[in-house]
Amino acid sequence: MKTRAAVAFAAKTPLEIVEVDLEGPREGEVLVEIMATGICHTDAYTLDGLDSEGLFPTILGHEGAGIVREVGPGVTSVAVGEHVIPLYTPECRKCKSCLSGKTNLCTAIRATQGKGVMPDGTSRFSYKGQMLHHYMGCSTFSNFTVLPEIAVAKLRPDAPFDTSCYIGCGVTTGVGAAIWTAGIGVGDTVVVFGLGGIGLNVLQGARMAGAGRIVGVDINPGREAMARQFGMTDFVMSKGMDNVVPHIIELTGGGADYSFDCTGNTDVMRAALECCHRGWGKSVVIGVAESGKEISTRPFQLVTGRVWTGSAFGGARGRTDVPKIVDWYMDGKVVIDPLITHRFPLERINEAFDLMHRGESIRSVVVF
Ligand code: NAD
Ligand code: AHE
Ligand code: ZN
C-alpha cells in the first residue's frame, strides 16, 4: 500500500512529506493506522545526527496512537479495529529480561530495532525502490506503520488519540521514573533538572507519590508557570549560575532524596547526582546524551552513599503498565491536556521541531 509519511532522508535536514510504499504485516506483525503522534526530544536528537544508532533514510516518531487495520499470520493478542499505542519498549513476556521481573527492558527484538528493521531483518517501508529504515521499532511519523504484536499496548476506545499518544513516551517515562524507577515516597524531597515534556511528567509523578518539596531547575524561565501547575514547589533558574549544586543543597536542607536529569546534558547529570543527600540520595538519568559523551563524578560521591541509576520508558512494562496509565489519565489522576501545547497536520511537522528547539512548546502533536 501507499502511505503518507515524513521522511528523514539525512541527518540535519528537514523532514520531507512524501508517499511511501508500505508492505503489509508478516507473521506476528500488525498494520496500524496512526491517528496522532507526539514529537519527543529523542526524535530531534536522532534527526540532529547525535544518536550513535541513528540510521538514514528513516521514518522517525515513537510516541503514537492508532487503530489496528490488519493482522499478520499467527497474531493472537490483538484484533482488527482495536486501538493501540506502539511500544518502543516491547513486552514479549518470554525473554530472560521479561521473565526476571527485574526490568522492563525486553530483549526479544532490541537488536533488529537498533538496526532499523523488523524482527525478520527486513524493512516494510520503501520510497522509489529505496529501503527506508524503521525507527525505534515504531515509525509513527507515517500515517500507517507495521509493528510486531509484542510492541503494541491496548488503548481503551474512549481515550482520545491526540492526547493519549503522549503516553507512548513522555508521560510514561516521566511518571514511571518517579513512581517505579525511583519509588518516591510520601514527604520526600525531589529535584528535577529540565522541565520540558519529560521533566513536567516527573513532577506530576512526584506529586502523585506524595513528595514534599519538589524543586524544578531549568535554563528557560518560561517553564516556571507550567511546572508550578504540575507540582513544583520551588523553581531554580540555572542559566548563568556558576554551580547550582551548593544552592540546591542549601535549599533542600542537605540534598535531595531523589533527583532526575531530564536534559540529556552530561554536566547536568553530574549536578543532579551531586545535589543528592549524603548517605542515601538517588539520582535517575532519563536524558539521552549525544554520541560520544560520558558522565563523571568524584567516586567519593558514591562512597558516601549517593546512588546513580537510569530509567528507560519509566521502567514501565509496555503491555502491562501502559493501559494502567491510560486509565489514570481517563480518571483524572494523570494530567495530559495542558502539556499538548501545539497540534499540526503532518505537512507542518518541521514547525514542531523548530518550536521545540526554541523552547516554545512542551509537546507538539501531529494529528493525521
Ligand atoms: P524538552 O526539549 O521538552 O525539554 C528539555 C528541557 O531541558 C527544556 O525545558 C530545556 O530548557 C531544559 N534544559 C536544557 N538544558 C538545560 C540545562 N543545562 N539545565 C537545566 N535545564 C536545561 O525535551 P524532552 O522531550 O523533555 O526530553 C528530555 C530528555 O529526555 C531528552 O534527552 C530526551 O532524549 C530524553 N528522553 C529519555 C527517555 C527515556 O526513556 N530515558 C524518554 C523520553 C525522552
Ligand atoms: N540510541 C541511543 C539510546 C537512546 C535511548 O537511550 N533511548 C531510550 C528511549 S528515549 C525515548 O524518547 C531507551 O529506551 N533506551 C533503552 C534502549 O534499549 O534503547 C544510543 O545511545 O545509542
Ligand atoms: Zn521519546
UniProtKB/TrEMBL annotation:
<dbReference type="GO" id="GO:0046294">
    <property type="term" value="P:formaldehyde catabolic process"/>
</dbReference>
<protein>
    <recommendedName>
        <fullName>S-(hydroxymethyl)glutathione dehydrogenase</fullName>
        <ecNumber>1.1.1.284</ecNumber>
    </recommendedName>
</protein>
<dbReference type="InterPro" id="IPR002328">
    <property type="entry name" value="ADH_Zn_CS"/>
</dbReference>
<feature type="domain" description="Enoyl reductase (ER)">
    <location>
        <begin position="12"/>
        <end position="366"/>
    </location>
</feature>
<dbReference type="InterPro" id="IPR036291">
    <property type="entry name" value="NAD(P)-bd_dom_sf"/>
</dbReference>
<dbReference type="InterPro" id="IPR013149">
    <property type="entry name" value="ADH-like_C"/>
</dbReference>
<dbReference type="InterPro" id="IPR014183">
    <property type="entry name" value="ADH_3"/>
</dbReference>
<keyword id="KW-0520">NAD</keyword>
<dbReference type="GO" id="GO:0080007">
    <property type="term" value="F:S-nitrosoglutathione reductase (NADH) activity"/>
</dbReference>
<dbReference type="InterPro" id="IPR020843">
    <property type="entry name" value="ER"/>
</dbReference>
<dbReference type="GO" id="GO:0106321">
    <property type="term" value="F:S-(hydroxymethyl)glutathione dehydrogenase (NADP+) activity"/>
</dbReference>
<dbReference type="GO" id="GO:0005829">
    <property type="term" value="C:cytosol"/>
</dbReference>
<dbReference type="GO" id="GO:0106322">
    <property type="term" value="F:S-(hydroxymethyl)glutathione dehydrogenase (NAD+) activity"/>
</dbReference>
<dbReference type="InterPro" id="IPR013154">
    <property type="entry name" value="ADH-like_N"/>
</dbReference>
<keyword id="KW-0479">Metal-binding</keyword>
<keyword id="KW-0560">Oxidoreductase</keyword>
<dbReference type="GO" id="GO:0004022">
    <property type="term" value="F:alcohol dehydrogenase (NAD+) activity"/>
</dbReference>
<comment type="function">
    <text>Has high formaldehyde dehydrogenase activity in the presence of glutathione and catalyzes the oxidation of normal alcohols in a reaction that is not GSH-dependent. In addition, hemithiolacetals other than those formed from GSH, including omega-thiol fatty acids, also are substrates. Also acts as a S-nitroso-glutathione reductase by catalyzing the NADH-dependent reduction of S-nitrosoglutathione.</text>
</comment>
<dbReference type="GO" id="GO:0008270">
    <property type="term" value="F:zinc ion binding"/>
</dbReference>
<dbReference type="InterPro" id="IPR011032">
    <property type="entry name" value="GroES-like_sf"/>
</dbReference>
<dbReference type="Pfam" id="PF08240">
    <property type="entry name" value="ADH_N"/>
</dbReference>
<keyword id="KW-0862">Zinc</keyword>
<dbReference type="Pfam" id="PF00107">
    <property type="entry name" value="ADH_zinc_N"/>
</dbReference>
<comment type="similarity">
    <text>Belongs to the zinc-containing alcohol dehydrogenase family. Class-III subfamily.</text>
</comment>
